[in-house]
Amino acid sequence: MPDTEKVIQLSRIFHVTTDYLLLDIDEAPQSAAPAGNNRETEQRAAEKQMKRQSMRMHFGWFLLIFGIISLSATLVGAGLYAQTLTEWRTNLGRYGTALFDSWILAPFIVSAALTLCGILILIREYIFIGKE
Prior knowledge:
mainly alpha
């Protein structure tokens, strides 16, 4: 018969019950991990979550900045195109005709959508920072 203390130590090392070691009972090992591994796992999970949040924030800033730059370029392009028009077909004058009655409308909508998405991502990340 083995020493009781050694059986208990073996059961802790292999995460099984003493009955499993002594009685030849078929049971699966317990899934409990040592406390040190739990802290390491929790720390890795927290680091991973912080990295994901940082990536989302960087992506939000990228969308916001790119959207604002492309929106500005679209509006400047519409202004330059408006100067070449001799007549207009909207109530907003030459600028409105250049913006809403030409190919410039599509980039305007896309750049406005990018800007809005960037703003929404940043609002979400800054409001819910640390709440996940």
